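ESCALATION

Customer reports they have been waiting on this structure for their group meeting. Please prioritize. Original submission:
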Amino acid sequence: MPIMHCCIKIEPAFGGDHTHIFFVSSRSLIPDRLILISELYISPLLPFSPPSLILISSTKLMANIHLILLVHGLWGKADHLSYIQSEIESDPTVSLHSKEKIVVYRTGSNEGYKTYDGIDLCGKRVGEEVEKEIARLNDGEDTVTHLSVMGYSLGGLIARYAIGVLYLKGYFKSIEPVNFTTFCSPHVGVLAPGDGVSVKIFNCLVPYLLANSGKQMFLMDKVRVIDYVNPGEEETPSSPLLKTNYNYQPLLLLMANPASVFHKALNGFKYKSLYANVTNDKRTSWWTAGISTMNPFEILDKNPNVQIDKNGAIKMDNGSKMSFHFIKDFEPNILDVKKTITVSKTTPKDTILEEQDVFESTEQIAENFFKRKAKWFFVFFNIVIYVPCWVITFIITNLIQRFQSTVRVIKASAAETDFWKDLYQLTNEDEQKPVIQRRPSLSRRLSESYDEFEKSVQDNIQTQTEDLIESVWDAMTSKRWDEPVLFEDGQPEESQDSLSITLEELSTLEFKDFSSSKDMNQDLEFFRPFQLKLSPPQKEIVHNLNKLNWNKFPVYITKTTSSHAAVIVRQDDPDFIEGKAIVQHWVRNVLRFPN
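Update from on-call: job pushed to the front of the queue and completed.
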């Protein structure tokens, strides 16, 4: 506890038989700011004659601050995180478990189209914004001692970059990183798996709609990476003689490298967790938001007839089945990755179809056919009829914002070249630098400077753009009824009919050589239908990020198809009620506070 000097001014009260005692802090000795704290009756025999001023020392408790940082996503703004902020600040369990002062801070430096500028520039801005907030909080008697971070959608990647910036500047030498959580963040990028024509077209066109951030999420960018290695075996790791290698790779691949500051910073957080939708969220599906090369939930989006029932089971018409478990008190919205799931199948010789079964299957074929066509009709309706109502505004705004984004990126790239160089070097050593405290003025947030009409227009454009991209993605990946579902009929007869595994284990399974199935473990072969056709960089990202100890929470939202927005209750919508349960789970069961 720090010792603070203060002054007590004692002067006689009216009547002379007692005194007034005033407290004067060490900061303001101005008479008109004296505060009457008590009245004290004194004896005239005391060895001083009021009024007098006595210098004394007293102790004052200094509060420790746990700063909780919230980072919005693409096209987002601070208001999107209002519900989460209100839940943290009002939930009684937070004040019960935390012995520190909780400060929730929503970032505002990347609002709107500034998210086009790229994960790197947006992450740098957030890092600087956090520095300013820490300096502001430390400017008083309190001190920021702990940091927790939550990133939503693209904000999760921006947050990972930002903590790398803070790590490089040495902030985590004095501030302990506690919680790091992402909601529906594309850690593995959004490059759609597969080699179909529609998939290739989608992967080529969409990145250009989202400027630099789009290229980075689709792994189409290249950043210069500096890798320091020892020149020979005779050299020791402490030798100053190092060989420098330069190469170019996607930013997301660099950020997942264990030798990068981004991976080191993330590893420093004591509790790492993620939430990922298992359906109706094609852009941030389970495999990318849940960091996995396997996706047992893919069938939920590809076949509209398939759902997870109230008992946690997915049943297929060919007899195959998956049985999951929900987290207690959060059924049927959050699946438990630590409990065993059972995957079972039936071989063709064990499957007997009666006339009724055949008739029902025929009906389902017709139903599925029309549902698939309806998806393409919805895309057609969006593009030809509905989109023109807002496309002019979108195109003009997008062109202007892309131009402005390019200017911002060029300026940022030209400045602080040493900063970018330090950030993109790979080393096994701890490269944290001393913190340089500063207190620049905070810029006004976009959400505070926009009027209600402008914010409404921006929200509408964002919603329509998201719906359009989601509908195109949904249509191109929808599955024909007669395509293989969970298990193909051509599998060996001696293969197992069922196998149990946890979702946690399944998410970390890897096929090092997908083509050579001869030597493949029979258990792995059983899960081969869940394997996605990811690119080599995507597989490397999954492998490196899964080295970290994640708590993963698959989310199943059914009351709305807008599960990406519903998961954090992005706006006030009665259909987002399931999202409130998800947020409550995070605040009460996942968010941790130091003892």
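Sent to customer with the following note: The chain has two domains: 3-59, 64-353+476-564+572-587.
Escalation resolved.
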